[in-house]
Amino acid sequence: MMLGLLLARAGIETIVLEKHGDFLRDFRGDTVHPSTLQILDELGLKQRFDKLPQQRVSQLEVLLADGPRPVIDFRKLKPYPYLALVPQWDLLELLAQESAHYPWYSLHMQAEAVRLIRDETSGRFCGVHTQTPSGNLRINADLIVGCDGRQSVLRHAAGLQPQNLGAPMDVLWFRVPRSAGHPNGTYGVPGSGGFLVLLNRGDYWQAAAVIPKGDAARTMAQPLSSFKSSIARRAPFLSNELESLLSWDEVKLLEVRVDRLQRWNQPGLLFIGDAAHAMSPIGGVGINLAIQDAVATANIIAAPLLAGLQPDEPTLARVQRRRMLPTRLTQGIQTTLQHRLIAPALQKTGTDKPVEMPSLLKLLLRWDTLRSIPARIFGLGFRREHVRSPKHKIP
Ligand SMILES: Cc1cc2nc3c(=O)[nH]c(=O)nc-3n(C[C@H](O)[C@H](O)[C@H](O)COP(=O)(O)OP(=O)(O)OC[C@H]3O[C@@H](n4cnc5c(N)ncnc54)[C@H](O)[C@@H]3O)c2cc1C
User: Fold this and answer.
1) Centre of ligand 1 from the C-alpha of residue 23, in Å
2) pLDDT digits (tens, 9 = 90+) for 313-360
3) Are both 154 and 11 inside the same structural domain?
4) Is residue 390 a part of any domain in this protein?
5) What are phi and psi of 179, to 5 degrees?
6) What pLDDT score does 42 carry?
7) Candidates 3, 17, 18: which one to mutate for ligand 1, based on the most atoms within 8 Å of Cβ?
8) Is residue 384 part of a domain?
9) Are residues 69 and 42 in the same domain?
């Protein structure tokens, strides 16, 4: 959606395909970090973004037995000293509305790209076959950008296989009502039998229970009441509200993957976002990296497309060269934290033995000056992008 907007804004005929009929899926991250706030500002969208329903979080906290304690502190970051928690469908809707101003832009909902088309003579990918409710559609293109997420159909169709970097966990994702007496923040809750994340979405908590990889079938074979009790033991203030969780159907399994393509492009085809590098939920940076990829891509490919040229391989390879370092560094930090913090905690799952506080967490709890370091790493990221693609006047 972001790349579609940037290309349309530059005056390039752009088609965005989305296989679903709306953006209203629940299991999307909500964390809009300062790096993305900066991009929205550069696009003149920050004021409209600020009007979306959101929680501004200046510190991320862990909920310990003696109450919430800060571990990540955004307050020193400039010019946006906070993380915005915004339902992703609202952000996507905002981008869709802005893109719709450009008559050469079109967004096809319920349009699923199913197959790539390759020019037999040149070997270059030159379009996609798409399934829509009104029949199949062939779309020809000077460039196809696969932004179709971690299960990318286009990546598979191009015969590309990402390198799996491993993740010890999956996530069970569910909602719990938020009541008047509840704490106000957004929390990680370490505790007996695993790790819980509570995202404050105003009138409800979006809860994420971290479970060992592949353990969902075993966990969900238990009575729901056992699961609810294990959550209530970690966050006792949720005990009453957990009553509203009536069936396992309300608990979704989100599989965590961390992987990376070795080569992000083929002739006529480029992959960005999770299709090029699936991110762990740690730090809530996946959306933000995907947006940085989109900005870098537009910065690199707008000029040749505007000149009526099909971006060649060296041009497409520049996108990967630009974005590989931030991807590697961020995934490196995520996999280290998975290994050091999450995996040891998960070994205690089902035992109700207390999880030992990792030394990194102890340091962050003790030294407030250290807390702005993770805020900078996750909030701003590495090699920050700025919008440099041109802006075409709306006729
Ligand atoms: C449990 C979990 C929690 C997470 N929490 C966060 C978080 O809080 N914050 C954060 O920043 N990141 C989070 N992430 C990571 C984040 O979800 C991804 O990194 C991010 O969504 C990647 O964006 P994307 O645009 O590349 O792909 P996606 O967001 O997956 O978007 C791909 C889009 O393409 C559409 N699509 C797929 N196939 C086709 C097709 N064939 N034709 C047409 N359309 C298609 C899909 O419907 C979808 O809309 C989390 C990940 C997990 C697993």
Assistant:
1) 11
2) 999 999 999 999 999 999 999 999 999 888 887 876 666 666 667 788
3) yes
4) no
5) -110, 170
6) 98
7) 18
8) no
9) yes
Compute the distance between CA of residue 144 and CA of residue 138 in angstroms, rounded to an integer. Answer: 13
Q: Do residues 304 and 331 both lie within one domain?
A: yes
For 151, the token pair is: 């299960």
Pairwise CA distance, residues 172 & 211, whole Å: 7
Residue 243's nearest CA partner among 253, 223, 228, 222 is 228
Q: By residue range, what is the domain housing residue 365?
A: 2-165+257-379
**Ligand 1 pocket by C-beta < 6 Å: which residues?**
17-20, 28-31, 112-113, 147-149, 153, 171, 254, 256, 273-275, 279, 281, 284-288, 290
* pLDDT reported for residue 34: 97
Same structural domain for residues 213 and 80? no
What's the confidence (pLDDT) of residue 26? 66
Tokens matching residue 330:
């961020």
Residue 242 DSSP one-character state? G
Q: Which residues of the chain have pLDDT under 50?
A: none
Q: Indicate which CATH number applies to the domain containing 274.
A: 3.50.50.60
Q: For the chain, what is the domain count?
A: 2
Contact between 191 and 234 (Cβ < 8 Å) = yes
Cα–ligand 1 centroid distance for 28 (angstroms): 6
For residues 271 and 363, membership in a common domain is answered with yes
Are 234 and 189 in contact by the 8 Å Cβ rule? The answer is yes
